[in-house]
Amino acid sequence: MTVWVIKGGSNGEHEDAFLNKGVVGLGYGLEQSIADFPDRDALRSRLSNNRTGADQVWRFYREVGDGDLVALPRKRTREVAVGRVTGSYAYRPELVGGAPHVRSVEWQVTNIPRAHFDQDLLNSMGSQLTLSRPGAPNAEARIDRIAKAYLGILPAGEAERSVGEPELGETPPAGSAVDDGVFSADTSEEIDIDREIRDRIIARLRQKFAGARLEHLVASILQTSGYAVLQTRQGADGGIDVLAGKGDMGFGEPRLCVQVKGRTSPVDLAEYDRLRGNITTCRAQHGLLVSLGGFTKPVHDRNEQSFFEIRLWGPEELAQRLLDGYDSLPQDIRADIPLETVRVLRQREVDI
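Above: the chain sequence. Below: its structure as tokens.
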């Protein structure tokens, strides 16, 4: 078994069809079954103007197998879908327009936030190829474990990083998507600069901030939003890390009870419910749960019923809050997360 990364079109146009119809597929303008071709050279001859496309379609036909893990990075939602291939190759032009070469997939989960994946896995899934094998260490086991942890079907400790995986913040070697010398890069896909910036900030947060350091960051971000804050004493907090209130000396409203989790595994329902209890204990009005490892799907589902009581800050939200108040943050934080202003020419305004 192996793991494959497949894209749902250059702009994500096939993603919904893949997920709704339980398939993944390729196109490249080939309007006949790959089984009609005796070998890859014959297919290359048919797609003579796109050798890269021919090689990917052939690999999809010959190498992707029943039981293989599939990761689908979703361009439109900044999420990742994960599933298992459950069938052999088929030519089904009626299923997904523009991607008639399909394999059936049983999707395990369709909405894992990108921030649940370490930077080397994100780099692997960021290949400009439509079909690729991620070159990050232990990619299949890690992606499968992340999916199960997000669904809440793994104990929290088992969702942590395994031996042999890169350290947080470590930059993986170039060429992290495996091509086995078959494919050449297709450079037509534009780089999402906003996504890259946030991914790197999240990796930096996980590298530099843990325990009381992360609590200090959260408290500082709340201060930039006009809260008076109190960081509780270590070991005596009962699960309460920060108390925050608006107004003079923090006696105004709203009053927040904050829990901060700096580990890499997602927060589960037990910790979510613990915060709900602490809100009452502290005579607060609302709760804020911050997690660098994100949250399990059951937590997101439960929080939909507590929208007016508790807010969740996962890695993406924390990175955005940091960006919003960066200039007002303490110098020690800005020294650990040094950001520069970069001016980029907007492509739509360039004369071509």
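Confidence is low (pLDDT under 50) at residues 161-176, 180-189.
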